[in-house]
Amino acid sequence: MPSFRTGTDDFKKLRDQGGYFVDKSPLIRSVLDSSEVTLIPRPRRFGKTLHMTMLRYFFEKSAEDRRPLFDGLAITDDTDAMGHQGQYPVIYLSLKDIKGASWEVAQDKLLERLSALHKRHDFLLDTLATDDRESYEKVIARCGSIADNELSLKKLIAHLQAYHNQPVVVLIDEYDSPVIEAWRNGYYDEMIAFMRSWLGGGLKHEEGGALFRGVVTGILRVARESIFSGLNNLDVASLLSSGPFADKFGFTEPELAQVLTDFDAEDLAGPMREWYNGYQFGPHTIYNPWSVICAISKRPDPIGPHWLNTASNDLIYAELESGGLPLKRELEQLLAGEELRRELHEHTIFSDVGKSAEHIWSFLVFSGYLKATDPQPDPRRPTRQRYHLSIPNLEVSIAFEQFVEHWHRSLSFTATEQLLDVLLDSNWPRLQDLLSELAARLLSCHDVAKLPEAVFHAFVLGLLAHLRQIYEIRSNVESGYGRADILMRPKTVAYPLAFIIEFKAIKGDADSAIATTEALAQIESRDYEASLLEAGVSPEHIRKLAIVVAGKHVTVTQG
Q1: pLDDT confidence bin for 447, thresholds 50/70/90
Q2: Which end of the chain is more exposed for a tag (fewer CB within 10 A), N or C?
Q3: 270 and 178 within one domain
Q4: For residue 359, what pLDDT band results from cuts at 50, 70 and 90?
Q5: What are phi and psi of 345, to 5 degrees?
Q6: 211 in the same domain as 95
Q7: Each residue's pLDDT tens digit, 241-254
Q8: More confident: 304 or 511
């Protein structure tokens, strides 16, 4: 039985140990055919580091013959590509884990990483002129000037090209890791200034062809004006883009089928589709590779979430929190299976993230928390595209449900835990008190004044999110001759009751009894119980509720 060697992200180590490898070697041909510099943003744990080390061991000049590492892979059938194997000096650097609570701490870690990079190529020292040698030694000793450090990549490329009389391949992995950390900790401007000079300046096209190819990976596409200003040799292989890179990160349907066959795990095809499928990179349906690998490696343990546990979700939670109630309302629409169309911004300007819902949705798409499909022209702005956003799979759905629970906990919403008991006991006076209490804690008068019925509808939908393990909860779903505000269908016989909820909002001096009668009449006249009956719910187990809202005062009545 093959083995994935879970956790090994070095291509040479994986191949030397006989680890299972889904053949992504055609990535090499894509790089050869691409622009001088290619930026490839993909979500975390989608194979970026493994693929970058594959590129390193393919292109890098070495005393060791590395061709055997590629035996049996598709790239060996490409005679032209194999002519580039082992022909170039390579600069490989990962910026993973460049973290710090301050610019001084992060800068120290950056300089340590640059020092190690220059030590790896210290054979150059004997060939350098005095000024260049002194600058190089200062970078190694971590005592260089600002100019020494910011120009170090550009100079190293030039030195390697001169030494080998061959252009250089530059591979920078997780370039945005220090940028994201800087944004979180308040030294974004300092980090961007350094990265613009060091990375953007280093990869800038120069006459004489010192750079053969540059490949940069990360999660987000930081705005060109932030780091890559002046780079007219840059191509961005966005996950929204079709093209040669679209299927190179993550497992395609045919690749997954082959994996399941090789591991005698064909029985997992259905669960894999439910838990880890749903990503759309260009025209390709993509599975989360890390979760697939973990699920197979951990058999016979039940299939479950793995990707969510590889990093803290605090940043995602912070962005969702910053979106306020309107964004939470839209998130609850997604959890309820409703369609949401939004414009996306492929350039991440960190100063804008958290300030508008559009930037937050973009952040979630490119981080792997949402799927974007079916781009259509915006009717109001035809030159712009609006994408259909959806939650890609069950694993990510759990993350959003955890956020809703986290949101409630952060606001001391212990009362939400009582909702299930109150509903099952049909204790409508207590439900009135609970909803009024929770509304007073969360909803501002400004929120309620704008769209009172819609706001309270979304508010209650959010409160019910933690019941999704035992109830299918749908919002504005077609049933009978109309759309019920909320339908709750039990997933298990242990909880037999089903609920139909209709909302009405009234002004303070209006008669709540009239609104209640209208809501209950609407449930009956439009036959909202039809879909529940079709699903096998007994009529005596259906509870029809009218919830009438006057400001933050709530009335609940069963029909």
Answers
A1: very low
A2: N
A3: no
A4: confident
A5: -110, 110
A6: yes
A7: 889 999 999 999 99
A8: 304
Where does the pLDDT of residue 508 fall: very low under 50, low under 70, confident under 90, or very high at 90 and above?
low
User: 42 and 55: one domain?
Assistant: yes
Is 408 inside any structural domain?
Answer: no
Report the relative pairing of strands 471-479 and 211-218 from DSSP bridges: unpaired
Tell me how far apart the alpha carbons of residues 174 and 210 are, in angstroms, rounded to a whole number. 23
Pairs from 368-374 (Cβ < 8 Å, separation ≥ 24):
368/43, 368/44, 368/46, 368/219, 368/279, 368/288, 368/307, 368/392, 368/396, 369/316, 369/396, 369/399, 369/400, 370/334, 370/396, 371/278, 371/279, 371/280, 372/240, 372/280, 372/344, 373/280
Residues 99 and 201 placed together within one structural domain of the fold: yes
> In the predicted model, what is the mean pLDDT of residues 182-199?
92
Whole-prediction pTM? 0.76
Mean pLDDT score of the chain: 87
Beta bridge partners of residue 206, listed in sequence order: none
d(CA 214, CA 195): 15
* Residue whose token pair is 């790089």: 31
The beta-carbon contacts of 233-236 under 8 Å, at least 24 apart in sequence, are 233/35, 233/36, 233/37, 233/203, 233/204, 233/205, 234/35, 234/37, 234/38, 234/39, 234/203, 235/34, 235/35, 235/37, 235/38, 235/39, 236/38, 236/39, 236/41, 236/346
What are the residues facing 353 on neighbouring strands?
356
